[in-house]
Amino acid sequence: MSHRQASVNGYESKKEWSAVQHVESYLNIVNDIPHRSEGEGILLEYVPLNAKRILDLGTGDGHLVYLIRGLSS
Q1: Which pLDDT does position 71 carry in this prediction?
Q2: Among 23, 28, 30, 70, which is most buried by a count of CB atoms within 10 Å?
Q3: Over the chain, what is the mean pLDDT?
Q4: Is residue 8 helix, strand or coil?
Q5: Could you tell me the CA-to-CA distances from 5 to 2, 23, 44 in Å, in that order?
Q6: 71 and 50 in contact (C-beta within 8 Å)?
Q7: 68, 64, 65, 58: which is closest to 17 by C-alpha?
Q8: What's the CA dihedral at 21, 38, 55, 61 to 10 degrees?
Q9: What whole-number distance in Å separates Cα of residue 48 and Cα of residue 58?
Q10: Can you give the pLDDT at residue 70?
């Protein structure tokens, strides 16, 4: 698959994530993504409870980091 073919919602570059409008558009639909909570649950199963560091790629609003922090409480 070429770089041009790898797009999400018709967006083909990474620059759009620096545009407030693009981020807001994503945040408006993120809760409607099918099976999102199931996917997050599976991801959280792989996070060791004694993890000292988690790499946050900074591609959202901190939602996953919030969930991961909840594991330690």
Answers
A1: 78
A2: 23
A3: 80
A4: strand
A5: 5, 21, 30
A6: no
A7: 58
A8: 20
A9: 20
A10: 86
In whole angstroms, how far apart are CA 4 and each of 7, 9, 16?
7, 13, 14
For the chain, the 3-state helix, strand and coil shares in percent, each to the nearest 5, are 50, 5, 50
Sequence-separated contacts (24+) of 20-28 with Cβ below 8 Å: 26/60, 27/61
Range 29-42 average pLDDT: 93
Domain positions in the chain are 1-33, 34-73
* Average pLDDT of the segment spanning 29-44: 93
C-alpha closest to that of 67 among 49, 36, 38, 41: 41
pTM above 0.90, yes or no: no
